[in-house]
Amino acid sequence: MRVRRVFLLAVTLAVCLVLLTIQGRGQESRAADLVAVVTTPVQRALAALHRGAFGAWSTYVEWKNVRAENRRLREEVRQLRVNALVVSETAGENHRLRRLLGLRDSLPLQTLAGEIIAREWGGWVRSLTVNRGRGDDVQRLIAVISPDGLVGRVVDVRPGSAVVQVLTDPASTVGAHVLRTRTPGIVEGEPRGTLRFKYMARDGAGLEVGDVVVSSGQGGVFPRGIPIGRVRSIDDRGSALFHYAALAPVVDFARIDEVLLVIGDRGKDLTAFFPAPTGG
Amino acid sequence: MRGLLALTVFGGGIAHATLAPALRIADVAPDIPLIVVVLLALRRGPEFGCIGGFAAGLLQDTAGGGLVGVQALTKSLIGFAIGTAGGRLWVSQPLVQVPGLVLLSLVEGLARYALLKLFHFPAPFGELMLYVVLPQALYNGFLGAALVLALAWTQTQRGAS
Fold it and tell me: For position A200, what pLDDT does the model report?
């Protein structure tokens, strides 16, 4: 065993020394060629493994980078979507406020702009809360309008806010008339959130679907001529004293965000200041 | 024996080709084939150390483009020597492994320098020792010890499971 080991060492050293001697005698290329015959395939295999290992590693790194980039881009897309929503919301708000400002500047009334901060939308009560209250000289029973038409009246004033009873509230009644025929009547809210126009049959001859109903100004709460709704259908009750017309409100109470509170003189006719309601 | 030898040569070669550049610190790279030869010679004996050292050194010589046979000779000697002395050395502690590998690397460096000097190697001894052999020896010592500890931990885990 010991002899075998020594023999092995001697052979190994001899091979090394032969190689070195060959090279030392100026025949480097021959020695190198000799070794290269054995080592080149091994080196090739090593290089292939090296390339494979690095290829796999670089693929993994790239995959990780792509994943990180994907995550970053997703976050960016999410942020851009939020930004787009903000821009869209701001543009919508800008448009609404411009309309409100235009109306406020054109009306021959003293008004106060308010923002809706809460909504009560149950069947029993339908109201909006605006961010104007006692400190802004807001009083009970003043009219609340929007660029589209009449919203309702203030029924409760608090230090920093006021509650507006909207027209569709079951307890809401507004004196009104049909713009085209001057047929007088009362607009009432209904529990299901709709409006109806109650009028005397003999006055309502000739009422048609699509007619616009506006506030009459009687009662002193609402200025005259503010659009309320458009006749959607007529409930002809034959020889009954009163007939009813279902109205489509001109204001979308569920979506309204800004309103004007009429705090000054309410005795003016505002028919000319509102555009003719569309749809119906 | 053959499988392990192939593993030594190929594993050391691959590690040297792939890991050594990545493990370079301040332009000092470890001599991974030497570490592998030493560690396996301790376990497998002088024959393995001699042949493994020869093959690994020959590959390094060829890859390096210098005199073929220098590292083959030094590494086979180191492998044989450490394989022979392995049974009498207490090498399971890092306190032995680090200085041991440092010492072996220094010896290998000295032997290589001596051999190369026979072929009129021009580099000054002091500079070569200070900037090449000694830093690499220290690096080999710590890397080898880390490798031994990692292997021991793996074996402990395997035994526990």
Answer: 78
